[in-house]
């Protein structure tokens, strides 16, 4: 089993990113050969500030290390340092069809009405994603709902390439759906995803928030006047309450039912401080490790360089085989 997954090096990582993505990576590195990359090439599909991209890349690497990614277990690198990603992407552009990319809902959503003004990269983004995983013969790719269509596309591209050139080169990657990955909602609106793009900072807990900020945001989080019920089913039409219980369960590493067993009949005046204590207990050590790691940015950059060395070695035979299959 070989897992490949990437995340864009944007700043401002939050609790949703941690519980919904990063923590699954930390678990996965113990179960499978794992390659995790910072998708700095993907970041180029929208307007970027070069200085910010460079510092976000190092900060994101520090964050992943602080959350528990172990570079002796997983290969951690940034995409730009492994040129084979861009090279294979170009080779696969001859295989991917315009019609396939036109059907991608993320392209439609992100380009909106301004297709003429969107970058070409925004359109071909899923081809680079296909290259990212096919390059390493990934057997499994962790995907949320929003990425399932892109993984299907990667499989279609791999299938067509193998057929067109009469080779059995690319492994078809399967989705890896982690049962433990919760979807965390905004603290201000229980029906919107917790997101870095939400203009309200009170809507999310950043991984670098102080203990006081964490406690204050949770104290002010939208909830309701009711008591916590005994069963998860009774939270169905109480999105804000359900979100806070989901966060508690995820941080505690238990299920919603176990949390309700503990808190049934209690109100949010009791629950929120307990949640704040729990959140601070998990997040404060991560924050401290991020700060310590960023004291020596060169050392963090070195971890990425080492990872890129290993990734280049793994990528080389597949890129060469693809070139040979195409007569290059
Ligand atoms: P954002 O929505 O803040 O822009 P990204 O789209 O950059 O976050 O997502 C990075 C990773 O974090 C993805 O794997 C995504 O599925 C996960 N993620 C983002 N927001 C949440 C959330 N609110 N709950 C669970 N997982 C999330
Ligand atoms: Na996003």
TrEMBL record:
ATP binds at residues 8-10, 16-17, 144-146, 184, 193-197. One of its GO terms (molecular function) is tryptophan-tRNA ligase activity. It comes from the Bacteria. The lineage of its organism: Bacteria, Pseudomonadati, Pseudomonadota, Alphaproteobacteria, Sphingomonadales. L-tryptophan binds at residue 132. It comes from Sphingomonas longa. Belongs to the class-I aminoacyl-tRNA synthetase family. Gene3D superfamilies: HUPs (3.40.50.620), Tyrosyl-Transfer RNA Synthetase (1.10.240.10). Catalyzes the attachment of tryptophan to tRNA(Trp). Pfam families: tRNA-synt_1b (PF00579). Its EC number is 6.1.1.2. It catalyses: tRNA(Trp) + L-tryptophan + ATP = L-tryptophyl-tRNA(Trp) + AMP + diphosphate + H(+). It is an enzyme of class 6 (ligase). Keywords: Aminoacyl-tRNA synthetase, ATP-binding, Cytoplasm, Ligase, Nucleotide-binding, Protein biosynthesis. A motif ('KMSKS' region) lies at residues 193-197. It is found in: Cytoplasm. A motif ('HIGH' region) lies at residues 9-17. This is Tryptophan--tRNA ligase. Homodimer. The gene is trpS.
């Amino acid at each position: 089993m070989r897992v490949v997954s990437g995340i864009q090096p944007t700043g401002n990582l939050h609790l949703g990113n941690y519980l919904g993505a990063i923590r699954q990576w930390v678990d996965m590195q113990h179960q499978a050969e794992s390659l995790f990359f910072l998708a700095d090439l993907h970041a180029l599909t929208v307007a970027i500030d070069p200085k910010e991209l460079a510092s976000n890349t190092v900060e994101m690497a520090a964050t992943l290390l602080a959350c528990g990614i172990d570079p002796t277990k997983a290969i951690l690198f940034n995409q730009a340092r492994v040129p084979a990603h861009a090279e294979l992407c170009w080779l696969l552009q001859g295989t991917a069809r315009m019609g396939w990319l036109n059907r991608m809902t993320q392209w439609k959503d992100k380009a909106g009405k301004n297709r003429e003004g969107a970058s070409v990269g925004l359109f071909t983004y899923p081809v680079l994603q296909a290259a990212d995983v096919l390059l390493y013969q990934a057997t499994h790719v962790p995907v949320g709902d929003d990425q399932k269509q892109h993984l299907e596309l990667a499989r279609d591209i791999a299938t067509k390439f193998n057929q067109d050139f009469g080779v059995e080169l690319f492994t078809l990657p399967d989705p890896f759906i982690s049962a433990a990955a919760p979807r965390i909602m905004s603290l201000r609106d229980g029906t919107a995803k917790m997101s870095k793009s939400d203009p309200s900072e009170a809507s999310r807990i950043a991984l670098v928030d102080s203990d006081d900020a964490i406690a204050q945001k949770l104290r002010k989080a939208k909830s309701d006047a009711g008591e916590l019920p005994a069963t998860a089913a009774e939270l169905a039409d109480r999105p804000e309450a359900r979100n806070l219980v989901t966060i508690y369960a995820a941080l505690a590493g238990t299920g919603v039912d176990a949390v309700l067993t503990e808190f049934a009949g209690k109100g949010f005046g009791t629950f929120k401080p307990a949640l704040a204590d729990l959140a601070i207990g998990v997040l404060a050590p991560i924050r401290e490790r991020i700060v310590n790691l960023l004291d020596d940015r060169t050392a963090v950059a070195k971890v990425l360089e080492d990872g890129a060395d290993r990734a280049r070695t793994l990528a080389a035979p597949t890129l060469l085989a693809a070139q040979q299959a195409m007569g290059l």
